[in-house]
Structure formats: structure tokens, C-alpha cells
Specification:
heterodimer, A: 505 residues, mainly alpha, two-stranded parallel ribbon, two-stranded antiparallel ribbon, 24 helices, 8 strands, disordered C terminus, B: 665 residues, alpha/beta, 24-stranded parallel β-sheet, 37% helix, globular, Znf-C2H2_STOP1/2_3rd (chain A), metal-binding (chain A)
């Protein structure tokens, strides 16, 4: 399990091109990946088209027909598109194809990147087969499947668009969703990688969407407070889940590029000609544009998930205020939490902004109680300890280690000094005294000049027993600090102490 | 010694029960060498003495195994003389003392770590008190180990700067029985740690939070403690009016509150701080930022039973002092030192109301004149301590009245005053006077001092620093009359010769002897003191050019209790220094001599003095001594101070004082 986790994190943490590498999980096939990234350059234009309005609608229609609106889309993928036999056949197919691909890639490189025609499509198809398969396996295996989803994205980006008749779209019809997830994961990844993947304007857009999404979350938080509008006083809209999960809601009628905000679209439109630069075109449409027109009915939204409290069919229906609320609600409540925190590797989120908020604080201040509860704030920890009997603050592991190392250093530096003193300064009595301080074994002869006024001289007891004191034990501060840690973690301190005395005496 | 002899007379010791001997031993002062003589009498006495002794203060931690084996019943172990206490030493303590050990002082020791503390905490299950002050390396993990000592009641963690709330939290949870905690200078501990301490340790009686970055928040919890008697908040800048605004408490048990140097505390905050402390007896507001005015004094309404108030370094108004006198007329101690703005009017109106006043400190209240001193003498007949250094405007006549009216005086500081022989004659009537400081009193002579010598037979401390009118005659009358003298300072009294020292050697209890800048005293005089004053612990011979090695040889031979010596700018050579190695408990040594010392001799002397903690040497030696030696000594717990002052010619005393007055505005 651990290795799988690691795999996942690696993929997350590394560049997007790596995470897109399907071979990395089962043996590694770099040529394949190389081909993939190669291909992406070519597909930039296709990518844009893919976001166009018409194909989207087409896909929507397909999905509505399949009647899966309320099912988690990933499950949908598994259930509908994949039975083991096709998977197997695909795999074996690809096994063969990988070799072909290798040749192909070489060929492509030789051509200088001019790729067109059927071979490209074929490669895309194979890639898709492998990656989607991989995705579904990993989904089953680990809940952090999202980390591998970017591998889907790239392939999907090539599939719809002009070639809707290709088998790729049939295998994985949820182009929108895949794309959505992929773009989210892109957000999560480094921008540098994005720049590599996508043409410039798109990258800018992605960055904007970062900002927007962070705001969105706050918006929804406000909305979640709940308001008491009388039923019927507002218009209920319900978006389909595909619509909700679509990354963009506003699309350019000319080039098909998608935007999250209408304002951004209008800014974009300016690039298409002077007619869009007029004040009227740039102004907000609809809203109060016609003064004196009758006030619009308040819009409220319903969640498409049946049985959800936010669904209009629910008895205690609570509407959502805005589309943003709907989006975040749907992702948080009805989607897989596919974003894993790269610091703690345990917390998962479905909304990327949530992940970012978490990552900002994750691991920073872990205030730990002996009961194992962690707190992000120290005052919360102390409140907890004040409340519960027997709970005690647990000293972080690093600190015990550093203090151990410093004390060890201290000891060693002193030892070093002593040695230096003995070597550098050649007084016989001095070195004797030195040994005396370093090794308080009771060999009387050694206390050369201290002897005359040692008040205990007449005291001739035998201290043989003390030579059995394990002096080394203290030098080996590592082991003793382990016990401290054990202590801090709530083991019975008395027992620990007992064990110490047992071993040492 | 007498008792020992009596025992010897009744020959058969078999008839003497252990209990009886123990009772006898109880009466023998532990500080003298009598106990040692007793234990050397015979084996049985030796054993009895070992059984009887409860407290130990060893000079070296190396001796611990032997000492602790001999004294099996040690309950109090003070390791302040041991600069280096290793984990090994602590485990020796843990194993040999075990559950009998109740108190351990490690405040001056270093070199131990959490491992040693753990052994201690596990083995000494009954440990009640531990002093870990100055363990600047101590971290939270080490504090977590201290928390294992469940029966701990008194804990001192002064200057443990690395500690944070987490460590204190561990201690608060672990040591539930704590009743005295000192966190002075633990600058890493804040409201949360202290608050948790107050929540978890309900028995706390005394809490020292001086110089902590706490605010008023944690005081809400602290003042809920049912048994809290002492709360020290010195220098807590975070304690301000805002955070105390909502504070309402009913801490009837609080007896002492120290809010000195709390810069952000004004009378508003103080009012809420004192709101429930009806039984407060001692209040310290020294170096308070606000003026002690009528308004400020009104915050003391609730604490009318106050017995002691400290307003050192505050600016006070006459109205404020008068109001304090009216509100708290049972005050027994008032400290106004360095309150530059105190006037005769204010002080008079204060002391008029305070018939019960026992202690008054008006050090450096330079505006005061004889009027206030007369008022003090007339209205405070019970005065026990009066400190009035540098009240230069006070006329000589005023001192006559003090001697006549305040007959109970025990402590009198008249440093830098105009007192003359007549004044001393009057003061000699204070028969119980034990401490008298007459530094920089240029008007006094041997005649005046002879009155003191004849009258004040209980004198323990006498300071004659730069009182240049004093000669051997005066000192000899003191030595004759004040046989209990423990401390004497005759620095810069240039007329003093060996005769004084010979006469002072009659004071066999002498512990501290300072004679800086006395050109006429020689090694012979020093030898006389060394031979007869066995308790001599502190000797300052700086700038006595006639002191040479023979004096030190005598000291080294006879003064086995010497802890601190200054022989800077004397004729001492490495021979004398080397002989000092014979003194086992020597801790501080200052030998700033620019020439005539060979580096190897100094090195040998330093190595010889095994218990050395501080050595002040001439800077030129720094490069001459092997670096490795210095490192070695530092590892042994000795700190070095390098000085390169050149000897300055001694100024005329009158001129010296003039210069001093020019500096002081």
C-alpha cells in the first residue's frame, strides 16, 4: 500500500508530464510518454476546439441518454466503458502497439514534429486505452485515484473535437468531466508545466481561474449559512451535473474558447475585432440594462443529486444561492476527493481551492496532544489539555531529536576540549585532573593535587558498584530520547522509567 | 566543641543513646567545623554524624558517590558549588539517595541533560523541590522529563530560555502537587503555558512570572487559584490595562504582589488587579511608568491592610504620598529609593500617618532635607531599618535626632551623607544596630567611630568605604567593641595600617574583608587576619601594593573557607597564586596584574583551583595562555574575564567626591 501511495504522491508532486506517464506505474515506458508530450504541441488547436459549444452539447446529449446523471462519473466510466475482456484485449493490443509507437515516435521526431493523419489518431487511441485502464485500476485500488487522472486528460483532449466518430469518444464519453478534472489537476501542478502543455492564452486563463476559484469557495461559505426564503418566492434552476463539472460556463462564439466568467469572455472578445470593443459590447449584458424593467425573480439553484438536501425534491430543501455554490457543493459532496495534500498525504479534497487552503497550513503548526489529537492552533491544544484529565502536550519528534543531538554535541565538544587540553597542555597533574572530571571513577591515586584538601579522604569506602554505572548510556542519547518520545506518545511513563533502571542496573 | 568535651567526660558511650547524640548534634551549627571535629572523634561518632546529617552542599560533583554513600539519609542536596554535574553524577544521586532525597539544587550546574534528569525523576520518587535555574539549554523535551517527578512541589526554572508553553504544559500536567513555581526569565513561555499551570496545579501558592511575555489573559486563571499567596509579575510588559479590564477576582489568599517594572500598567489596570485582593500585605510597584498621584493612590483603596509598599524609581507627587498614608496607615515598610521627585512635604505627610513604620528606604532622594528626617524621627519610633544613601541636603543636626528617637534601629545606611562625630555618638545609642554603612562620610573621625565601638556591640556589618578620616585608632575600638563583626569594608581609607588588621583579627567571625586601595597594609597584617579569622570567605586586596606572596601563603594555609579573592594590582606572583590551589572551595579569583606573572605559573594555579567558577585576569595573559587550557577550564565550569585596565594614580578623596558630584546632576 505504501508503495502505491508513494507512486501517487510522486505523480502529484512531479511535473504534469510525468504524471501523465502511463508506463510509470507498470514498468515504465518513456518513449510512450515522450510521444505523448510531443503530441500535445500539435493538439493545441484541437484543444481549443474541444472546448467549443457544439461538441459539448453533443456529449451532454449522449450522457443524458445514458441516464447516468446521478451516478458518480468515475463509476460511470468503469461500469459503462470497461469490461475486463475489452480491457485485456486492449492491453494486449497495446502491448503490441507500444513497440509500434516507439518506432512511430522516432519517426515523428525525425519529421520534426509534423504529425497528422491516422497514425496520430491511432496513437492517441492506444494511449487512451492504457491510461484510462490504468486510471480505473488505480481508482479501485486507492482512493487517491485523482492523482493519476491527468493522464486521461491529455488523451481526451485529442479525442473529441472534429473526430467524434472515433472509438475514443465511445470508450470514454465524458470528455467534459475528464477535461475538467484534468484542468483542475493542472491547476494543482506547476505553472511551468502548464506553459509547456498549452498555448499561452490558455495558461493565462488558468491562472485567472485560480483566483476565481478561491473566491468561489468563500462565496459558497456565505451561502451555506442558509436563508429562509419562502418557497415559491424564487425561481429554482437545476443544472445537470455535466454542466456543473464543466470547467467553463462562458464560451466564445467565434473561437470556442471557454471562460469561467462572462467578464473574462468579454475581455477576450476584444481580440476578435473592433466591433467587440465598443462600450456597449463591453458592458454587462441584461443586468439593469433596461431601466424600469420589472425586477427579475430571485434565482436559486438545486443540486441535481437525488436525495441531497440541496435537491429540490428533498423535504427540507435548502436552495443554493449561486452557480458557484452549486459547483462547489456538488464537487464537495458528490464527487470523489481526488486532490491529496502533498504534505500530509492524508487529507483529500474535491475542490482545489480547499486543497490550497489546507496546504497553506498543513504541517506548519502541528500541535500534538498525548492522546494523538493534532491541533492547528496552540491555544486549541491547550484548551483541550485543560479540559481533559491526563492529557499532556506531546513534544514534537524533531525537537527531541535536535535537543538530543545538541546535548550530544555539547558532550562531544567538551570531550574534544578535554582531549585538546591534555594534548596541548602538557602538565602531568592537569591531565590527571582532566581524567578525574571526565571519569569520576574512584581511583584515589589520580586526584593528585586535589587530594590534600579533599574532605573525604579518610573515607575509605569501596565504590566498586559504581563502575557498573553505564556511562555510555548517557552518551547514547539517541536511545534515551526514544523513551522520551514513547513517553510523549502516551505510554505509561512509570513503566518506561522502570525499564530504564532495569537495563542500566 | 564544649559539648564534645562533655561527652568525652562521660566515658562509656554505650550508655548514650543515638537519640541523645542526635539531639546534641541538632544544636551544633552546621556551618562551623564543629561537626567535622565531632565526627573525627571516634568511629561511632563518625557513623552517628553520617546518620544525622540531612543536608549536603558538596564542593565537587566528583565526590558525590563517596559523600552520598557516607550520608545515606541526605534529604537536601545543594549542588550550587559544582559547576559541572554530568548525567553520571545525577544517576549517582538517583541511585544512592533514591526515595530519601527531597530537595535538589542544580541552579548553578551545567552539563546534565534529559537522560540524567530522567534517572533522577524515576529514582527519587519523593523529590519535592528541584531548582533547575540557569539551565539555558533546557528544552521542552527535558521539561517533559521533569514532569515525571510527580511529587514535585517546588520548582524553579529561572532563565530556562529555551522552554516554551509545551514544556510548561507537560510539567503542569505531570506535577499536580506544585505549590511554588518560578519561571523568571523563561522568555519562551506565554499565556497558554502559564494559564494551563494555573488550571492544572490548584495548590500553587507562589508563582514567579517575572519577565515573561504574558498578558493579562492568563491572570484571569491565575487569580482563581484558591491558595495563591505570592504573585511576582516583575517586568511583564504585556500586562496592560486592556487585558485586565474585565478581570474580576476574589483572591483572598493573595499576600504579595510584585508588579514592578510593568511599564504598561496604570492605575486602571492596577485597580482591577487589586480588586479582590483584600488581604494583600506586600505590594511592589517599583519603576512604574505612571506618576504616583492622587488618582493612582486611589487604586489602593481595596488593599488597606497593606504592610509593605515599594515605589522605587517612580515619580511621586506629594498628594499621592499623602493619599497612600491615609489609605494604608498600617504600612510597615516603605521603599522610595531613587524617587527623585520626593519632596520634604510629601514624605512628611506620608510618615506622619505611619506610626508603625519599621523600614524606610529613601536612597538617593536628593531633594530631602533635615525637615523630613526630623519628621521621620518624631513620628516613627519603631523604625528598624533606615536607608538614606546620598541624601546630601540633610544637615548634621538631623542625625542627632535619629539616634535619640529611633532606638530600635538595626540597619542604617548613611553612605554619602553629612553625618559627623556628634551624629555617630547619638546613633551609638541604638544598641541593636547590626549594619552600619558610613561610606563616603568625610566628616567622621576616629572619635565618632569609637562611640559606635563602645555602644553597638551587636554590629555585624560596617562599611567605611572612602571615609578617609578613619585611622587605626578607630578600627581598633570597633574591633574591641564589636566582636560579632562579620563584614568590614575599609577600602581607600589610606591611613589604615597593619595595626588595624591585627586588631580586627580579634573578630573571629569575620567573613568579608575589603581593603581596596590601602597602601599601608602588608602581608603581615593579612596573615594576622588569616590565622585568627577562620571563617574568612571573601577578601578584596585590590590596589594594596604591599601585599605579596607571603600574605597569600598564610591565607592559603589558614583560610580554608575562602571563596572569593581579589589580588589585582598587588605584588603577588605566581607563587602566591599557586598556593591558593590549596583552598578547596575557592570559586572566584581576580588577578589583574599587568606584569610579573608567568603564564605557566598562572596556568598551573588555575588548574590547581579545581572549583574555580570565575577568573578575572589581565588581557595580556589571554594570548599567552594555551587556548586548550582555557577551553579545558571553561569546560570545567570556569568563566574568564579579561581586563586591561592600567593602574590609575589614586585621587585625593575630597577631589574624588567633587568629581562624583559633578557627574550626578
Amino acid at each position: 500500500m505504501e508503495t502505491e501511495d508513494d507512486l501517487c504522491h510522486n505523480n502529484w508532486g512531479s511535473s504534469s508530464s510525468k504524471s501523465r506517464e502511463p508506463g510509470s506505474s507498470d514498468g515504465g515506458n518513456h518513449t510512450f510518454a515522450g510521444f505523448a508530450s510531443q503530441q500535445k504541441w500539435e493538439d493545441a488547436s484541437i484543444l481549443d476546439y474541444e472546448m467549443g459549444v457544439e461538441p459539448t452539447l453533443q456529449v451532454f446529449d449522449e450522457m443524458k441518454a445514458s441516464g447516468q446523471a446521478n451516478v458518480d462519473f468515475l463509476q460511470g466510466v468503469r461500469a459503462q466503458a470497461w469490461d475486463p475482456r475489452t480491457m485485456l484485449s486492449n492491453l494486449s493490443f497495446m502491448e503490441q502497439k507500444i513497440h509500434q509507437l516507439q518506432d512511430l515516435v522516432h519517426l515523428l521526431v525525425g519529421r520534426g514534429g509534423q504529425v497528422q493523419g491516422r497514425q496520430d489518431e491511432l496513437a492517441a487511441q492506444q494511449q487512451q486505452l492504457i491510461t484510462t485502464d490504468l486510471t480505473s485500476i488505480i481508482i479501485q485500488l486507492i482512493s487517491t485515484a485523482g492523482s493519476l487522472l491527468p493522464s486521461v486528460k491529455h488523451n481526451m483532449s485529442t479525442v473529441p473535437g472534429p473526430y467524434t466518430g472515433q472509438p475514443g469518444s465511445a470508450v470514454f464519453p465524458y470528455a467534459r468531466e475528464a477535461n475538467n478534472v484534468a484542468s483542475q489537476s493542472q491547476n494543482n501542478n506547476n505553472c511551468g508545466a502548464q506553459e509547456f502543455d498549452l498555448p499561452k492564452p490558455v495558461v493565462v486563463d488558468e491562472r485567472e481561474s485560480h483566483v476565481v476559484e478561491e473566491h468561489e469557495m468563500k462565496d459558497e461559505d456565505d451561502a451555506e449559512e442558509g436563508e429562509n426564503l419562502p418557497p415559491g418566492s424564487y425561481e429554482i434552476l437545476q443544472l445537470e451535473k455535466e454542466e456543473i463539472l464543466a470547467p467553463h460556463t462562458h464560451f466564445c462564439t467565434i473561437c470556442g474558447k471557454g471562460f469561467k466568467r462572462d467578464a473574462n469572455l468579454r475581455m477576450h472578445m476584444r481580440g476578435h475585432g473592433d466591433e467587440y470593443k465598443t462600450a456597449a459590447a463591453l458592458a454587462k449584458p441584461n443586468k439593469e440594462s433596461v431601466p424600469g424593467s420589472e425586477p427579475m425573480l430571485i434565482k436559486r439553484y438545486s443540486c441535481p443529486f437525488l436525495g441531497c438536501k440541496r435537491n429540490k425534491e428533498h423535504k427540507k430543501f435548502q436552495p443554493l444561492k449561486t452557480i458557484l455554490c452549486v459547483k462547489n457543493h456538488y464537487k464537495r459532496t458528490h464527487c470523489d476527493k481526488s486532490f491529496t495534500c502533498s504534505r500530509c498525504h492524508t487529507k483529500k479534497f474535491s475542490v482545489i481551492a480547499d486543497l490550497k487552503t489546507h496546504e497553506k497550513h498543513c504541517g506548519k503548526n502541528k500541535w500534538l496532544c498525548s492522546c494523538g489529537t493534532t491541533f492547528s492552533r496552540k491555544d486549541k491544544l491547550f484548551g483541550h489539555i485543560a479540559l481533559f484529565q491526563g492529557h499532556t502536550p506531546a513534544i514534537p519528534l524533531e525537537e527531541t531529536k535536535t535537543s538530543a543531538s545538541t546535548s550530544a554535541q555539547r558532550g562531544s565538544s567538551e570531550g574534544g576540549n578535554n582531549n585538546q587540553g591534555m594534548v596541548g597542555f602538557n602538565l602531568g597533574s592537569a591531565s590527571n585532573a582532566n581524567q578525574e572530571t571526565a571519569q569520576p571513577g574512584m581511583t584515589d591515586g589520580k586526584i593528585s593535587f586535589e587530594e590534600p584538601f579533599s574532605p573525604m579522604n579518610f573515607d575509605t569506602c569501596n565504590f566498586g558498584g559504581f563502575h557498573e554505572f553505564p556511562r555510555l548510556m548517557f552518551d547514547d542519547s539517541e536511545s534515551s530520547f526514544q523513551m522520551l518520545i514513547a513517553n510523549a506518545c502516551g505510554f505509561s511513563p512509570r513503566n518506561v522509567g522502570e525499564s530504564v533502571s532495569d537495563t542500566s542496573l | 566543641m564544649k559539648k564534645v568535651k562533655q561527652i568525652r567526660v562521660s566515658k562509656p558511650f554505650d550508655l548514650l543513646s543515638e537519640e541523645l547524640v542526635f539531639i546534641i548534634l541538632d544544636l551544633i551549627s552546621p556551618t562551623s567545623s564543629d561537626l567535622k571535629s565531632f565526627s573525627l572523634t571516634c568511629k561511632w561518632f563518625y557513623q552517628l554524624e553520617s546518620k544525622h546529617r540531612r543536608s549536603l552542599k558538596p564542593l565537587r560533583s566528583d565526590y558525590l558517590p563517596r559523600i552520598l554513600t557516607r550520608y545515606r539519609y541526605t534529604t537536601d542536596l545543594d549542588l550550587t558549588f559544582c559547576p559541572r554535574v554530568t548525567d553520571y553524577a545525577l544517576s549517582v544521586v538517583g541511585c544512592l539517595c533514591g526515595p530519601t532525597l527531597l530537595s535538589l539544587d542544580l541552579s548553578r550546574s551545567g552539563s546534565f541533560s534529559a537522560a540524567g534528569l530522567l534517572r533522577l525523576a524515576v529514582k527519587c520518587v519523593n523529590l519535592v523541590e528541584i531548582d533547575l535555574s540557569n539551565a539555558t539549554e533546557m528544552r521542552d523535551a527535558d521539561a517533559a522529563v521533569v514532569a515525571e517527578a510527580r511529587s514535585l512541589e517546588r520548582l524553579k526554572l529561572g532563565r530556562c530560555k529555551m522552554l516554551t508553553d509545551m514544556g510548561i504544559g507537560c510539567i503542569a500536567v505531570g506535577c499536580k502537587k506544585l505549590n511554588m513555581v518560578s519561571l523568571k526569565w523563561c522568555v519562551g513561555v506565554g499565556d497558554l503555558g502559564v494559564g494551563l499551570l494555573a488550571v492544572k496545579c490548584k495548590d500553587i501558592r507562589s508563582l514567579d512570572l517575572s519577565y515573561l511575555p504574558i498578558t493579562g489573559k492568563c491572570l484571569h486563571d491565575i487569580l482563581k487559584l484558591q491558595h495563591l499567596e505570592e504573585l511576582l509579575l516583575e517586568g511583564c510588559f504585556g500586562v496592560d490595562d486592556d487585558s485586565l479590564k474585565s478581570l474580576r477576582h476574589d483572591c483572598k489568599s493573595l499576600k504579595k504582589l510584585d508588579a514592578s517594572s510593568c511599564q504598561n500598567l496604570t492605575h486602571k489596570g492596577l485597580t482591577s488587579l487589586l480588586s479582590g485582593a483584600a488581604c494583600l500585605q506586600r505590594l511592589d510597584l517599583a519603576h512604574c511608568s505612571s506618576v504616583i498621584s492622587l488618582d493612582f493612590a486611589s487604586s489602593l483603596k481595596k488593599v488597606s491592610a497593606l504592610q509593605s509598599i515599594g515605589l522605587d524609581g517612580c515619580s511621586v507627587t506629594p498628594d499621592g504620598l499623602k493619599a497612600i498614608g491615609t489609605l494604608c496607615n498600617s504600612l510597615k515598610e516603605v521603599s522610595l529609593s531613587k524617587c527623585v521627585s520626593v519632596t520634604d512635604e510629601g514624605l512628611s505627610s506620608l510618615v506622619m500617618k505611619l506610626k508603625d513604620l519599621r523600614k524606610l528606604d529613601i536612597t538617593c532622594c536628593r531633594k530631602l532635607s533635615g525637615v523630613s528626617i526630623t519628621q521621620i524621627a518624631n513620628s516613627c519610633p519603631l523604625l528598624v531599618s533606615l536607608k538614606m544613601e546620598s541624601c546630601s541636603l540633610v544637615s548634621r543636626e538631623a542625625f542627632w535626632l535619629i539616634g535619640q528617637k529611633c532606638r530600635l534601629l538595626e540597619e542604617l545606611d548613611l553612605t554619602d551623607n553629612e553625618i559627623d562625630d556628634e551624629g555617630l555618638k547619638s546613633i551609638s545609642g541604638c544598641l541593636s544596630l547590626s549594619s552600619l554603612k558610613l561610606g563616603i562620610c568625610l566628616n567622621i573621625t576616629d572619635k565618632g567611630l569609637s562611640y559606635i565601638g563602645m555602644g553597638c556591640s551587636n554590629l555585624r556589618e560596617l562599611d567605611l568605604y572612602r571615609s578617609v578620616g578613619i585611622t587605626d585608632v578607630g578600627i581598633s575600638t570597633i574591633a574591641q567593641g564589636c566582636i560579632h563583626l562579620e563584614t568590614i569594608n575599609i577600602s581607600y581609607c589610606q591611613d589604615i595600617t597593619d595595626k588595624s588588621l591585627v586588631s580586627l583579627s580579634k573578630c573571629s567571625l569575620l567573613q568579608t574583608f575589603e581593603s581596596r586601595g590601602c597602601p599601608n597594609i602588608t602581608s603581615q597584617g593579612l596573615a594576622a587576619i588569616a590565622v585568627r579569622c577562620k571563617r574568612l570567605a571573601k577578601v578584596d586586596l585590590k590596589k594594596c601594593p604591599s601585599i605579596n606572596d607571603s600574605g597569600l601563603l598564610a591565607l592559603a594555609h589558614f583560610s580554608q573557607n575562602l571563596k572569593q579573592i581579589n589580588v589585582s594590582d598587588t605584588a603577588v606572583t605566581e607563587v602566591g597564586l599557586l598556593s591558593l590551589a590549596n583552598i578547596g572551595c575557592l570559586q572566584n579569583i581576580a588577578v589583574v596584574i599587568s606584569s610579573g606573572l608567568s603564564p605557566s605559573g598562572v596556568a598551573a594555579a588555575l588548574l590547581g583551583c579545581g572549583g574555580l567558577r570565575k577568573a578575572k585576569l589581565h588581557a595580556s595573559l589571554r594570548s599567552l595562555l594555551p587556548l586548550s587550557l582555557i577551553h579545558h577550564l571553561e569546560a570545567r565550569g570556569c568563566a574568564f574575564l579579561w581586563k586591561d585596565n592600567t593602574l590609575q594614580a589614586e585621587l585625593d578623596p575630597k577631589y574624588w567626591k567633587q568629581q562624583l558630584e559633578e557627574i550626578v546632576p
